[in-house]
Write a structure and sequence with these properties.
The protein has eight helices and seven strands. It is of the alpha/beta class and 219 residues long. It has a single domain (3-218), classed as Rossmann fold (3-Layer(aba) Sandwich), CATH 3.40.50.150.
């Protein structure tokens, strides 16, 4: 197994699924109004399953990714032809952080996307995620994040109250808890059940739930 294959297995999207899950995230962003001029933050960019198609779509200097496991980014640069040229052309910024704070780049983002991060987060990390989003989301910006309300059998799970990061296992949250965390940061949160359907139609194993966040004053 080469390093790029190892990275795909690590993030849970292997072979064709690696490319498909990224293209679906790009389509979700475009459905919400993404344009080549938009500034995008990806929280947990991993081995750039979504980062590569997003970078292809955006203009240069418009993408920032947070990823503490930097070897995942190095793996796709080394293992997937064209990635290094894409990065040289689009000049993304990568932050090697274990939190959700992108304030160091000094910009606001029109879109924030995060796939398969809250689904492994400790209970205390979810409100920290919302705080990080609020700090850098543009006034009329949109944040999209996958999360687990259901298990694989479509049963609501409630709060798992995980005390620390859980991986490769998953953590769950109650919808009411997420509403409370969002309200504390004056963020409007929507449970987008249609986004789960959008993903599972193409990738049945990708049964994450999805939420959409915006500033309350932008509504």
């Amino acid at each position: 197994m080469d390093i790029f294959e190892e990275a795909q297995y690590y993030v849970g999207n292997v072979g064709p699924d690696y490319f498909k899950v990224g293209s679906l995230q790009l389509e979700l962003l475009k459905e919400n109004g993404l344009a080549p001029s938009s500034h995008v933050l990806e929280i947990g960019c991993g081995c750039l399953a979504a980062g590569r198609p997003i970078l292809h779509f955006l203009g240069p200097d418009h993408y920032v990714g947070i990823e503490p496991n930097y070897w995942l980014i190095e793996a796709v640069i080394e293992g997937l032809p064209g990635t290094k040229d894409l990065i040289d052309e689009k000049r993304p910024v990568f932050l090697r952080r274990t939190d959700f704070d992108a304030t160091s780049v000094g910009r606001r983002f029109d879109f924030i996307i995060s796939h398969s991060i809250l689904s492994h987060a400790a209970h205390w990390q979810c409100p920290e995620f919302f705080k990080g989003v609020k700090k850098v989301l543009a006034p009329s910006g949109v944040a999209l994040a996958s999360i687990r309300f259901h298990d694989q059998d479509n049963s609501l799970m409630g709060d798992s109250l995980s005390p620390e990061w859980v991986y490769p296992d998953v953590s769950h949250f109650a919808w009411e808890t997420v509403q409370k965390f969002a309200a504390a940061e004056q963020l409007c949160v929507e449970w987008r059940k249609d986004y789960r359907e959008f993903f599972t139609k193409e990738l049945p194993s990708n049964y994450h739930d999805w939420i959409r966040l915006r500033h309350t004053q932008s509504l």
